[in-house]
Amino acid sequence: MPGIAAPPFPEDVTTHPLLVIDYQLVKAGHQDEIEKLWMAATRLGFWYLKNHGADAEVDAMFEMGSETMALPLEEKMCFEQGDEGMSFGYKAAGVNAIDEKGNLDSTEFINVAKDDVLAFPTVVHRTYPSTVVTRMNTAIRPFVDKSLEVNGTLLSVLNAKLGLPEGTLARLHDSKQKSGCVARVIRSPPKETSMDEDKAMLSAHTDFGSLSFLHNHLGGLQVLAPGTDKWQYVKPLPGHAICNVGDSLHIFSGGILRSNMHRVVAPPKEQAKFERYSLVFFTRASDSAELRALVDASPLIAGAVAKTSNAQARFWPGVTAKEWLQRRVRNQRIKNFSGPESFKTWLGTEDYSSIAKAGAISEGTVAREVVAA
Ligand SMILES: O=C(O)CCC(=O)C(=O)O
Ligand SMILES: [Fe+2]
């Protein structure tokens, strides 16, 4: 398995602690556990999830991912996403800007659309490399099914805590509708040293959708916690997924649920010498879902929005989930980059003035200005 031969996460590197949520307890309706999930989702927007029951599916996906990355580059390039905002297929390393200077990312992805997986062998969005096709039923479908179940359960718990009528978030994330939901395997190359920590391999970002279900073995993921201006590693824990809230859930909830900034840098110390793999399932709202705070469905959300400055720009971007995703994917491509102003156009919901303080972008680049494509 990728990363398994690497040394453990070093003990003398500072990490940001996350709450540990037990999926089985949440699913069984355990109130204390649900309160813990709520605390995690509203304060940092990141948490560990244990007892998710997806270990075997995760291992099979890592195998699919490493076989795909081992294909010749020319073959992978036949499935490249392109520059128009398609988020499914292969993403080569170095095609995205990571900052306003136009520095390049160094991660490659294979992104498999939930819609193509559920409809297989019918093609909904696009075709994939042979390593994906041959594992569609044995590895990818089981992982997608499990991830939809886990994220669907978390969404229904958050739905109730937000005071929304039953099934509101479920309808916005109906897996039978077309959406940007995707399973992604990420590979980043080994580095001689982790000293260039501030050179992100995957740029500082908030996730584009609603809930992310992430699995990794090596360090490298960092968060910029609220009220801080220092990036901190999140330590991978065996058997624990890392879950986080993305932009659309932040918007639906009128900012109650936090879509927190994160990035991937070289793994710490000796781990940097190893290639790094990670796996994510992104649950995203249906393509046609309008991104807006659900004020008319929940007094709690209406109350939160009423207390927020600039609420119209933050929570009524005037686009659908599909348009939001397309803009963020397309405008990050280096082909569409023409300087700091164009870099702004890919940004999401987070408070970018805090990453400006942490040095990744300049003070002038603030996401609030970004409303639509
Ligand atoms: O690789 C990781 O640990 C995080 C990846 C990530 O943030 C993403 O793909 O959005
Ligand atoms: Fe992310």
Automatic annotation (TrEMBL):
For this protein, the record's Gene3D superfamilies field holds: B-lactam Antibiotic, Isopenicillin N Synthase, Chain (2.60.120.330)
What are the UniProt keywords, alphabetically? Iron, Metal-binding, Oxidoreductase
GO terms (molecular function) for this protein are: metal ion binding; oxidoreductase activity
Concerning Pfam families, the annotation shows: 2OG-FeII_Oxy, DIOX_N
Q: What are the Fe2OG dioxygenase domain coordinates in residue numbering?
A: 179-285
The record's comment on protein family reads:
Belongs to the iron/ascorbate-dependent oxidoreductase family.
PANTHER family associated with the record: 2-OXOGLUTARATE (2OG) AND FE(II)-DEPENDENT OXYGENASE SUPERFAMILY PROTEIN-RELATED
Name this protein carries in UniProt: Clavaminate synthase-like protein
Q: Which organism is it from?
A: Daedalea quercina L-15889
